[in-house]
Design a protein that fits this description.
There is one protein chain. By secondary structure, this protein is an alpha/beta fold. The chain has five helices and four strands, in the order βαβααβαβα. The two termini are 27 Å apart.
């Protein structure tokens, strides 16, 4: 399904359990089996400004955003408007919980980029939340956790 349309996949678990390493391992495998596919990883902890995050997100999905774009909202709007020209993209948003520092409305706007029906973007959200249904990230974003599964050792 993800080879045909966009969407959101969530990987949650305790710190240090290999979530990010797993993502880094599967990215090349997906890239070789789904063509064309652009893969990138954004470490959300490293962003001090939401606008810079949005510029990097746009770059990771092959959407050119003029530096004159004044806000993160305008940047996200430009990404959504360019869906027809986007390359199929997998974007790993590592430590995605930290995006909440920019506000729940910002998180909702970011997630809506991949959640819309015609999106070619798949977000792979990596979070340290163990109980995803009660995570502040998902409560504030309005993201539905349909089909949530878990793996136990």
């Amino acid at each position: 399904r993800l080879a045909k349309q966009g969407g959101i996949v969530v990987i949650g678990g305790r710190p240090g359990t290999g979530k990010t390493l797993c993502c880094k391992h599967i990215m090349p495998k997906l890239k070789s089996s789904i063509k064309p596919l652009r893969c990138s990883l954004l470490n959300c902890v490293s962003y001090v400004e939401s606008k810079q995050f949005c510029y990097d997100l746009a770059k990771s999905v092959s959407v050119a955003i003029p530096k004159s774009t004044s806000s993160s909202t305008a940047c996200l709007t430009a990404i959504k408007a360019n869906k027809a020209t986007q390359t199929k993209s997998l974007v790993v948003l590592d430590e995605c919980d930290t995006l909440l520092r920019f506000g729940s409305g910002f998180v909702r706007s970011v997630l809506s980029v991949a959640a819309s029906a015609k999106s070619k973007i798949v977000f792979l959200l990596v979070t340290n939340a163990v109980d995803l249904a009660h995570s502040p990230l998902f409560k504030s974003s309005g993201l539905s956790l349909q089909g949530q599964g878990s793996v136990h050792k």
